[in-house]
Design a protein that fits this description.
The protein is α+β, with helices and mostly antiparallel strands. The chain contains 6 helices and 5 strands; from the N terminus they run αβαβαβαββαα. The protein has a 5-stranded mixed beta sheet, sandwiched between helices. Helix 4 links the parallel strand 3 and strand 4. Belongs to the tubulin family.
């Protein structure tokens, strides 16, 4: 929410974010990523650039959910950069990502990556980036949760807590 609270070059609001990230109402599940993911002590030894932040931000290791974006296609994405940086460089990097990885983006939504730049960096960092992506690979996570639920439901695990309160078993 930094782009709502702090001034920036390319600011956005929640309505714009929702409009840009949700192409259809039922496709509203996001994957979130962050860069740099480093320990607090090692940050002073590492000089970050916009290209390096961009590369890290789109990397599956920096995603906050256990789904590999390379197993699906991006419908839309939003990149929020924080710190002193050029909006031109940010835009160039976003175009480079789309051109190099065009097979990972749906072709029927043109310009599906939106970028926002906020001038104020997070505490303790010179620059950082946050990624919000709407990808079809999120189905991996839903499939895994569904399989785990089905396995537990077959064994009637934890159902006694609900039936004890008067809730009927399905």
């Amino acid at each position: 929410t930094c782009w709502l609270r702090f001034p920036g070059q390319l600011n956005s609001d929640l309505r714009k974010l929702a409009v840009n990230l949700i192409p259809f109402p039922r496709l509203h599940f996001f994957m979130v990523g962050f860069a740099p993911l480093t320990s607090r002590g090692s940050q002073q030894y590492r000089a970050l650039s916009v290209p390096e932040l961009t590369q890290q931000m789109w990397d599956s290791k920096n995603m906050m959910c256990a789904a590999d974006p390379r197993h699906g296609r991006y419908l839309t994405a939003s990149a929020v950069f924080r710190g002193k940086m050029s909006t031109k460089e940010v835009d160039e990097q976003m175009i480079n990502v789309q051109n190099k990885n065009s097979s990972y983006f749906v072709e029927w939504i043109p310009n599906n990556v939106k970028s926002t730049v906020c001038d104020i960096p997070p505490t303790g960092l010179k620059m950082a980036s946050t990624f919000i992506g709407n990808s079809t690979s999120i189905q991996e996570m839903f499939r895994r949760v569904s399989e785990q639920f089905t396995a537990m439901f077959r064994k009637k695990a934890f159902l006694h807590w609900y039936t004890g309160e008067g809730i009927d078993e399905m």
